[in-house]
Specification:
With 201 residues, the chain is mainly alpha-helical. It is built from twelve helices and two strands; from the N terminus they run H-E-E-H-H-H-H-H-H-H-H-H-H-H. It has a single domain (3-193), classed as Hypothetical protein af1432. The protein has helices spanning 3-19, 40-53, 64-73, 78-81, 89-93, 95-107, 112-127, 131-150, 154-158, 163-170, 173-176, 178-193; strands spanning 26-30, 37-39. Helix 2 (40-53) packs antiparallel against helix 3 (64-73), helix 2 packs across helix 8 and helix 3 crosses helix 8. The chain starts with a helix and ends in an 8-residue tail after the last helix.
């Protein structure tokens, strides 16, 4: 292997070593069985799986492989920036700033061509304008609804989140899939009926 190839592999491995730290980033959502905090790597695996299984509910022509790539890297910035709880208005004030710094450092570990590709996918997800980004965001939001529902309210109850806020945050699911948004709405409504999510105050 020549020096250029060796350097390239070394940079790729440095990125992969760093990416392993995502397993240590804890989210506010709780796993249904153990009730321990879900980590961001588990969340990532779950939404990639969801994107494959639910692909027929994505808009026609959606490039699901691109969606999978987007989802695999979308939360890697949390290694530096931490997970920002979806309903934490204070945390969201500087979220973009923290995550851009993280993207520059972490994606910058890769060879230049891969840095550009991965950073581009991350920015596409963040912008949420393409069909792929909308479907990826739908998976990200839908998974959180599902896990909170399965854990009897989970982080909704723990942080006193009300149903109106859950509806408002997750209605973007419908921008990609009306069918999945209808399903998510049913879960949210059932959580309210069961007393696992407080209704609008």
């Amino acid at each position: 292997m020549n020096q250029t190839a060796t350097d390239r592999l070394e940079r790729q491995m440095r990125f992969l070593f760093e990416a392993d730290k995502l397993k240590e980033v804890l989210r506010r959502t709780r796993l249904p069985q153990s009730q321990r905090a879900e980590n961001s790597a588990e969340h990532t695996w779950h939404i990639v799986l969801m994107a494959v299984i639910l692909a027929e509910h994505a808009p026609a022509g959606t490039d699901v492989v691109r969606v999978m790539k987007m989802l695999l890297i979308h939360d890697i910035v949390e290694i530096d920036a931490g997970d920002t709880f979806g309903y934490d208005t204070t945390g969201h004030a500087d979220k973009r700033e923290r995550e851009v710094r993280a993207a520059e450092r972490i994606f910058g570990l890769l060879p230049a061509d891969q840095t550009a590709e991965i950073r581009g996918l991350w920015e596409e997800f963040e912008a949420g304008e393409t069909a792929e980004a909308k479907y990826a965001l739908a998976m990200d939001r839908f998974q959180a609804v599902m896990v909170n529902y399965l854990s009897d309210g989970g982080s909704w109850r723990e942080h006193h989140v009300t149903a109106d806020r859950v509806f408002a945050r997750n209605q973007v699911i419908g921008n990609s899939s009306p069918a999945l948004w209808a399903y998510a709405r049913n879960l949210i409504e059932d959580a309210v009926a069961k007393g696992h999510l407080a209704p609008k105050p």
